[in-house]
Design brief:
Protein name: Cytochrome c oxidase subunit 7A
Radius of gyration: 37 Å
Largest sheet: none
Strand content: under 5%
Number of strands: 0
Number of helices: 2
Oligomer: single chain
Helix content: over 70%
């Protein structure tokens, strides 16, 4: 009785290696995404949302901010009105 030759062993080994490596890499990538990258991105987004809310609250909650900006604007307008008059003055 003759022993049948082993055929297709290389092809089967290559298929098993490819399937195993692809599935393992997908599992590692999914774990990285859900356990590290996504939570880190969410923390960064939450920080910037909180920072923007604090800026809006600081700007809206401080009534002097508008007063100071209007006062600064009035000073600039006064200087723009006075500077041409200063050049018209004649020294003695």
């Amino acid at each position: 009785m003759a022993i049948a030759p082993i055929t297709g062993r290389l092809a089967r080994t290559i298929k098993i290696d490819l399937i195993g490596s692809i599935s393992l890499s997908l599992a590692v990538a999914t774990g990285y995404w859900h356990l590290y990258a996504n939570p880190t991105s969410n923390k960064i987004d939450e920080f910037y949302v909180k920072l923007e809310a604090e800026k809006k609250l600081k700007k809206a909650g401080n009534p002097n901010c508008l007063f100071l900006s209007l006062t600064f604007f009035r000073c600039i307008m006064l200087l723009c009105a006075l500077v041409p008059r200063l050049y018209q003055l004649k020294p003695y």
